[in-house]
């Protein structure tokens, strides 16, 4: 149980375009999901907390207009990287918590490369 | 802000050896979590600790939640090649369920 599906697993886009990443909880409902960013050989940095039916909460230094988060249902949160630039290239990972257990289940991540 | 200090940064060991890594913080956490991440994948939860002093095992893995609630360690016994990966500790806070991650320990196991 507690499976989180993230899609796509990798994407290459041109500078200036937007990319949408989906995070789905497959066998549980998640009122809260989290989006992380991970640079090579570094730890996971929390970007924002996605709340179902309300606005996301962004961490300090994360541009909310650049990283749009939509948590429209109890099983889906999306992260849209708008007007992507090469410095946005990174590994993006979502996580969600199954209310019936502790610990957070992570998606398999999305490797974004902006060229 | 809250930070976790995880050590060592990397370890090179021989198959069969035991491994120990730890995390410390100046902040108190209500839960401690240990994850393993393989290259190109998301982290996978290994052990979750819920209260101070708790000692929990999962196969060859053992983790403890420090009494002060400011530290935790993870031990791996009789390491095998598939233990290779990055191990992250994470401290959980109440209410908002935010999880703060340590910098990770890279484990290399030589057969």
What does this structure look like?
- The complex is a heterodimer of chains A (115) and B (111).
- In chain A, 0% of the residues lie in helices and 51% in strands.
- With 115 residues, chain A is an all-beta fold.
- The mean pLDDT of chain A is 91.
- Chain A has strands at residues 4-7, 10-13, 19-25, 32-38, 44-51, 57-58, 67-73, 76-81, 90-96, 105-106, 110-114.
- Chain B is an all-beta fold and 111 residues long.
- Chain B is built from no helices and 11 strands.
- Chain B has strands at residues 5-7, 10-14, 19-24, 31-37, 44-49, 55-58, 61-65, 71-76, 85-92, 99-101, 105-110.
- In chain B, strands 2, 4, 5, 9, 10 and 11 form a 6-stranded mixed β-sheet that branches. Chain B has a 5-stranded antiparallel β-sheet with strand order 1-3-8-7-6, with no helix packed on it.
- In chain B, strand 9 (85-92) and strand 10 form a beta hairpin.
- Chain B is globular and about 40 Å long.
- The chains are: A mainly beta (115), B mainly beta (111).
- The interface between A and B is medium-sized, with 24 and 23 residues.
Strand content of chain A: over 45%
Number of helices of chain A: 0
N- to C-terminal distance of chain A: 37 Å
Number of strands of chain A: 11
Overall mean pLDDT of chain A stands at 91
Bulk shape of chain A: globular
Spans of chain B of 5+ residues with little confidence (pLDDT < 50)?
A: none
Count the beta strands of chain B: 11
Beta strand % of chain B:
over 45%
Structural class of chain A: mainly beta
Number of helices of chain B: 0
Percent helix of chain A? under 10%
Helix and strand run of chain B: EEEEEEEEEEE
In this structure, how is the largest beta sheet of chain B organized? 6 strands, mixed
C-alpha termini separation of chain B: 40 Å
Shape of chain B: globular
Measured as a percent range, the helix fraction of chain B is under 10%
Specify Rg of chain A, calculated over alpha carbons.
13 Å
Give the oligomeric state: heterodimer
| Main sheet specs of chain A | 7 strands, mixed
